[in-house]
Amino acid sequence: MQQGVFSEAVCGNRAAEIFGFDLGCEAKRKRVAPVTGERVCGASGLYIRLLFDDVGPLGREAFARIRLTGHSAVGKRTMQPEGWTMPYKNVVRRQKAFATGLQRFSSVEEMIGTLRPGHSVHCMHPEKLHEAARTFVEHFPGHSLYAIKSNPDPYVLETLHKAGINHFDVASLGEVRLIRTMFPRAHLAFMNPVKSREAIRAAYFEYGVRDFVADTADEIDKIVEETDRAQDLLIVVRIAMPKGSAACALTGKFGCTPDQAVELLKIASSVAKTGISFHVGSQTLSPSSYADAIRKGGEVIARAGVKPKVFDVGGGFPVKGLGMEILPLEAYFDIIRAEIAALKLPKSCEIWAEPGRALSGECSTLVVKVNLRKGDLLYINDGSFGNMFEIASMNWKNDCALYRLPRKNEETAAPSSKLAPFRFYGPTCDSVDYMAGPFLLPEDANEGDYIALEGMGAYMACSQSRFNGFFSDAKVEIVSTTRTTQLKVVK
Ligand SMILES: Cc1ncc(COP(=O)(O)O)c(C=O)c1O
Question: How does DSSP classify residue 255?
């Protein structure tokens, strides 16, 4: 059986059920029955992968009809029966069948006033995604690979891609598939230093991935074996870096010592093109952390005596909204540019970065509702098992604002202009569902008020569980540049 990704058949209504397929051969008007189909991903849209028998010699042009309850999508594709080793290449045209379907508002305030939501809502700011993408595309001195783990929502991917991001750092087969489904010609680098054999094999043979990271000789062996000793590999060696100025350290789990990296580069260069990478830690607050890491990387390359094809400075670039003072990204890029120039790398060496948070972090304002107040504790309708995992685990103190709606048969009192520190408990019965903050809000914050938290685009929505029956992936689009910077009363 061949697996073909049909196209992105996107349906804004996630409740839709797939109830039928039709796969036909346009040229000969002869039908081929598809075997089955499945939905993939689904954070904001509905993507469909069709599995069907070998198309054989039936023709090159075929079309498929996918019917969803209430909608249908038709897409054309070219089939090359003899060329199925890399199915993604057969997807010649993506067809956007439906718009993302997000409800649009001109401000967060308008959304709250109109929907009065009883569940949390991500208010997406497409202009923030666009701005972040353009900053990297125009000012980073090399390729920017979006680390999709930070937010794999198709809405986010599509917006970044439209703004010029066409390189992706993927860390699992699921991420490989998602990007190939959406952007068949994008560049993918598999940057998880420990991969399963199955994932390496499928990434190479089915999805055309050529670039892999490793931090041990065993992983290099796995890559070489599972790609059947391919001659077109790039193996990037990841060096461990100390915490430095990162608010969120990524030490311990991945990366080798500089001495080990020298040996690994020598091993890798006998079987592949090579590169080096590191990660200075997420939300890195000082550009000098990149300078230190780049110098270390340069020493490793010089000692190994290899000519790298890639020098990858990783992710770690910071965002606003998490309650920290940050420097503009250009300050980071200037230091990276200068330090890399000093290494005098071969002209053919590509410079890469793997930004996750810096691309997706500012794209969402999360609106939550207060269910109860006990002293300085606000019991809200989202939490650490939901869309606030990173706030709880990293103890972020996000910038926030309070919105108050008129209550039934009551005069609405404007929220106090005096601010006080608050802590949050999430909706589940588990005590770890707790966000210590403190979050600065009007001192009279109370039941029924809405709180809008900034900087909620990265590592939040994608880590939520369904624990205790709570789950919300509700999302709307805010189309103006109105931000939640001050207290407001919705009338
Ligand atoms: C290999 C790799 N690259 C890039 C990133 C993205 O980092 P950030 O979101 O801090 O930019 C991560 C985050 O965990 C990572 O593990």
Answer: -
The 10s digit of each residue's pLDDT in 141-171 is 999 999 999 999 999 999 999 999 999 999 9
Can you say whether the dihedral through the CA atoms of 453, 458, 459, 463 is positive or negative? positive
Q: 307 — phi, psi (to 5°)?
A: -105, 100
Residues 182 and 321 grouped into a single domain: yes
pLDDT tens by residue, 73-111: 444 444 333 322 222 222 222 333 334 568 999 999 999
Q: How far apart are CA 264 and CA 215, in angstroms?
A: 8
Instruction: Using a cut of 0.90, tell me whether the model's pTM lies above it.
Output: no
In 434-482, DSSP assigns E strands to: 434-442, 450-453, 475-478
Domain extent for 219 = 166-355
Q: Select from 268, 263, 297, 266 the least CA-distant residue to 280.
A: 297
Let me know if residue 135 belongs to a domain: no
Regarding the beta carbon of 150 and ligand 1, being less than 6 Å apart is answered yes
Please work out whether the CB of residue 360 comes within 6 Å of at least one atom of ligand 1: no
Spatial separation of the C-alpha atoms in residues 331 and 144, rounded to whole Å: 16
Cα of 329 vs centre of ligand 1, distance in Å, is 16
Give me the torsion for CA of 247, 252, 253, 254, rounded to 10°: 90
Are 6 and 48 within one domain? yes
Q: Where are the beta strands (DSSP E) in 79-233?
A: 103-105, 121-124, 143-147, 167-170, 187-190, 211-214
- Report the chain's C-alpha Rg in angstroms: 24
- Scanning 213-320, the segments in alpha helix (DSSP H) are 217-226, 258-269, 288-304
